[in-house]
Amino acid sequence: MSVAAVIVDVPTMQTNRPFEYEIPEALNDVVVPGVRVEVGFGRGKRKIQGFVMEVKDSSDFSGKLKPIIRVIDVKPVLSKEMIDLSYWLADRTYSFQISCLQTMLPNVMRAKYKQFIEAAPGFEDDSQVQALLQNHLFVELTNDTTDEKIKEIAQLKRQNKINIEYVVENQANSLTRQAITTDLNVNEISEKKSQLRSNAKAQLKLYDFLIVHHDELPIESSEIEKKFNITRPTLKTAEKNNILKFIEITKRRTPVGIHPEQTNAPVLTDEQSQAVSTINDSIDNHQDKTFLIEGVTGSGKTEVYLQTISRAIAQDETALMLVPEISLTPQMVNRVIGRFGNQVAVLHSGLSSGERYDEWTRIEDGVAKVVVGARSAVFAPLKNIGVIIIDEEHEGSYKQDDNPRYHARDVATWRAKFHKCPLVLGSATPSLESRARAEKGVYQMINMTKRINDHPLPHVQIVDMRNSENSAVKGDFSPLLQDNLWRVLKRKEQAIVLLNRRGYSSFIMCRECGFVLKCPNCDVSLTYHKNLGRMKCHYCGHEEPVPHVCPNCKSKKIGFYGTGTENIEKQLNEQFPDARVLRMDVDTTRKKGAHAAIIEKFGNHEADILLGTQMIAKGLDFPDVTLVGVVNADTTLSISDYRASERTFQLLTQVSGRAGRADKEGHVIIQTYNPDHYAIKDAAKQDYETFFKQEMYLRHQSGYTPYYFTTLISVSHQDEGQALKQSYWLKKQLQSVLSDNSVLLGPSPTMISRKQNKYFYQIIVKYKQEPNLHQKLLEILSDTQAETKKGFTIAIDNEPQHID
Ligand SMILES: Nc1ncnc2c1ncn2[C@@H]1O[C@H](COP(=O)(O)OP(=O)(O)OP(=O)(O)O)[C@@H](O)[C@H]1O
Ligand SMILES: [Zn+2]
Ligand SMILES: [Zn+2]
């Protein structure tokens, strides 16, 4: 008897292990690791889904095993690699195994969907396939499909004679579209055309269209109408005259809006070719090394990525490239597609679940060899990976905020080891963790110190907003920034204006002296808690009243700080009435494709000034941008997080790097109330190394990453007293295993301590080496998730990206 070990879809601690089921004889070859099955669970008749993790010959269990009720997939949806990875992931992130398995699959497989079987191209006339489909284009796989039939389907799938389409139920009808085609060849159409009357303009146009596009038929009717301006009646007339016919076609849903031109590899600069050859050596020798490319803005890192991807493809391997957020980096996606065309699959949150599924299948079937995508693309079902790349590796968005709280960099490291391939991390402003690892030799450093064609780095000026000349102006632009905007407009060049929104309005600053209220214990800024009307520290829980005079200079100009993008847009319109301004923030980018549209417009010179939040800071490459203005550099500096300086440095360096990337010189103006802060001064010099040394020193002093590991544990309950009580219980539990070298902070209420009617408290553990901590946390998780303690949720976050 064969036995399947199944992880069932019940996310609780008690079910967080494989359960054994008997595999019915008829399903012997079909139930393999990686397929999903339906099984009975518990007493009663409850049926649930589960993943087969392992198939064994016998069971250690002495009782009678329940049989598998039904197999959901006729082909594994997860590979052996993914199953292995899920064990590691669950352990690393303190998550349920089932959550990890599900995270690896496209959404559509979690929603309510239907499965259709169709003939694979070229197998339409195969006798077995015909027997299965019985003259239908599709057959649906349902609950009633017999085990025998499933076995047959699984076999055909293994032979690649059929394809399986997952269709979300309400999208099922989008699977077929109407198209036109013709039985005539080009000569016959020309012949018919010569018989037309010369005033049959529309028909003449249509015949010409059919001749020119003959190779591309069938073409969707809607496309013909939209793109070529040929109307439906025109098509109908031609149908009556037997020139063309309408048919139904199945349509692969390709992501819209991406039609880049084909590009060829340029001649590399010395630094680029050095980098490429170092990495390619590792690809050739199948080494799982991690490289950190520290390359100044505009040094041509992208080209390095592209050429290493080329190498992997040339060796018949695949490549995985992660970018922070696809919608923000349309230029990057275009460059990859421009080089590798159809071999590229793009995975991002903007895709409909059907589109996402299509891309996923193209990868799974081996048609797509290069995957570009945001965080979750790190689970792309690529086989035989030759290189993995993480661009802008310092970005916080690589860490998932919800369970499983994984960092794409860690998953990528795991996969690189599995595939024995190099992992390339790139940034102009590496995260401190990564740069520190390079220091220790864990990562191999690759430096790119020059911009392409020796273009100089931009000239940066810091404007001290405390200065009377600047504080006297009515709006938010200093005289220097105003003058420079005028100059850019006169020269018909372009400017980028950044309004730093992060942390905006939650902290208090003195407009006279730049003073920011900080925690006496933790050296992070205090945050305003609206419901309490008090200032609070997120780390240790210290609180104090909101000050009305500046403790530093006694000025009354202390208060909440911040202006909105809309307000700045208004000021720009008033002061520069002839300038065309594009605004990019959460409000203007709600619609799908809005980011790309704004960026394209700016690239086409349909605007002079691009005003925006953090969104505009990274990756953009426009040759005519000669000025970058930062309205308020201080807001990130004041977020109550030990990464505040790092984030500020990164943001300012990245946004400055948008200026002067081509032949025209770049100029940057940074307005700040903290002109002497090292993060701002170093960013102005685009000097990562100096910043790194200073910041490392401070992290060492205060005991933070990368000198210490950090684990954040949050507890929530509907009753505040219960939440607090539980946090103290948790603290005691942790104290019992921690050595004196570790630090325990909290419990303290989180920023919005009451979300969805629950109270949240958090505890932070900072440690260097705690061999018993991991096990203890697993125990705590198991205890708190037990039935008796219902109502509590506890979340454990390894190396949190931000603490709020
Ligand atoms: N070898 C080359 N020859 C000519 N132009 C190049 C070469 N390599 C890159 N470029 C061009 O130089 C510009 C900057 O390159 P790229 O955008 O790759 O820089 P980057 O290092 O990724 O910068 P950032 O970190 O600021 O995004 C691009 O317009 C790119 O097309
Ligand atoms: Zn504190
Ligand atoms: Zn002051």
TrEMBL record:
It is an enzyme of class 5 (isomerase). It catalyses: Couples ATP hydrolysis with the unwinding of duplex DNA by translocating in the 3'-5' direction; ATP + H2O = ADP + phosphate + H(+). GO terms for molecular function: 3'-5' DNA helicase activity; ATP binding; ATP hydrolysis activity; DNA binding; zinc ion binding. Residues 282-448 form the Helicase ATP-binding domain. Its cofactor is Zn(2+). GO terms for biological process: DNA recombination; DNA replication initiation; DNA replication, synthesis of primer; double-strand break repair. Residues 545-699 form the Helicase C-terminal domain. Its EC number is 5.6.2.4. Zn(2+) 2 binds at residues 519, 522, 537, 540. Zn(2+) 1 binds at residues 510, 513, 550, 553. InterPro entries: Helicase/UvrB_N, Helicase_ATP-bd, Helicase_C-like, P-loop_NTPase, PriA, PriA_3primeBD, PriA_3primeBD_sf, PriA_C. Keywords: ATP-binding, DNA replication, DNA-binding, Helicase, Hydrolase, Isomerase, Metal-binding, Nucleotide-binding, Primosome, Zinc. It holds the Pfam family PriA_3primeBD. Gene3D superfamilies: P-loop containing nucleotide triphosphate hydrolases, PriA, 3(prime) DNA-binding domain. GO terms for cellular component: primosome complex. Binds 2 zinc ions per subunit. Initiates the restart of stalled replication forks, which reloads the replicative helicase on sites other than the origin of replication. Recognizes and binds to abandoned replication forks and remodels them to uncover a helicase loading site. Promotes assembly of the primosome at these replication forks. Component of the replication restart primosome. Belongs to the helicase family. PriA subfamily. This is Replication restart protein PriA. The lineage of its organism: Bacteria, Bacillati, Bacillota, Bacilli, Lactobacillales.
